[in-house]
Amino acid sequence: MSSFNSYDKCPACSREIRLHDTDEMNMCWDDMVKEKEMAEAIKELKRVGSVSAKFGEHTFGKSNRGYIRDYISAWIQSKQWLNSDSVGLYLYGTQGTGKTYASRSVLYDALYDGRSVMEITAYKMLRHEALFQNYSQSKFETPQLLLIDDIDKAEWNTKSLNYLWSLLNERSNNGCRTIITSNVKPDKLRSVIGAGSEGNQSTIESAMQRLHPVTTIEFKGKSIRGMV
Predict the structure, then answer these.
(1) Between 3.40.50.360, 1.20.1290.10, 3.40.190.10, 3.40.50.300, what CATH number should domain 50-219 receive?
(2) Alpha helices in the chain (DSSP H)
(3) pTM of the entire structure?
(4) What's the CA gap between 28 and 38, in Å, rounded?
(5) Backbone dihedral angles phi then psi of residue 147, each to the nearest 5 degrees
(6) pLDDT per position as a tens digit, 125-169
(7) If 0-12 CB within 10 Å is exposed, 13-18 middle and 19+ buried, where does residue 20 land?
(8) Separation of alpha carbons 194 and 180, rounded Å
(9) How far is the C-alpha of 153 from the C-alpha of 139, rounded, in Å?
(10) ∠ CA 110-115-120 to the nearest 5 degrees?
(11) First-last CA distance in the chain
(12) Rounded to whole angstroms, what are the CA distances from 59 to 100, 166, 211?
């Protein structure tokens, strides 16, 4: 910090250094250290394939523009879930309405707080399970927060449904929390999964119960893809 000129801009908050008192300077310094740690953590998560290449960009605080205002309410509710007692977070709405965007923002906050996070599309998760089986299950069981994206787009059959039940059951037993995104309402999701799994409603309901208590949030509005 001694290398800064008093009229230089603070790299953390952009105010002039001379306008900071000691406590403010220490807070800004801590923020810079934390941001560096976050950058290194995200880089490692990307390296091992635990998050997407775009992870870390999906925080409304970094791109809060006028066209986001239609999605702020649902986004705020999603962020509030992190400090709630709900085990599951189910975000649904038409394509491009910000579900994955908001989910990654929640994961980012969780990572900032020191919690382990992971994201995967439901399709890739089931493909991974088919290839690696037991290793796959343990891989997705352990993160404190797991995002299963686009659950309605996976290839559901009896085997994949049983896998989902087992995964959610283990995560629930371990005190882990799960975020799910979908284009359809929860009731419709039961039909989507049941259509390919011989209508095994008992297993479907049992799997869904592993997300309870669950917070359900609908995302509305026009697609924001290409805008953020």
Answers:
(1) 3.40.50.300
(2) 22-47, 72-81, 99-112, 122-132, 134-141, 158-173, 186-196, 201-209
(3) 0.78
(4) 15
(5) -100, 120
(6) 998 887 776 555 678 999 999 999 999 999 999 989 999 999 999
(7) buried
(8) 17
(9) 21
(10) 75
(11) 34
(12) 11, 31, 25
**Can you read off the two tokens belonging to residue 187?**
């009731």
In this structure, what are the phi and psi dihedrals at residue 220, rounded to the nearest 5 degrees? -120, 175
Burial class (CB in 10 A: 0-12, 13-18, 19+), 155: exposed
112 token code pair = 């900032």
Please give the pLDDT value at position 222.
73
**What token pair was written down for 127?**
């493909």
Q: Is the model's pLDDT at 228 over the cut of 50?
A: no
Tokens of 208: 């869904």
Domain map of the chain by residue range? 1-48, 50-219
Q: With bands split at pLDDT 50, 70 and 90, how would you rate the model's confidence at 84?
A: very high
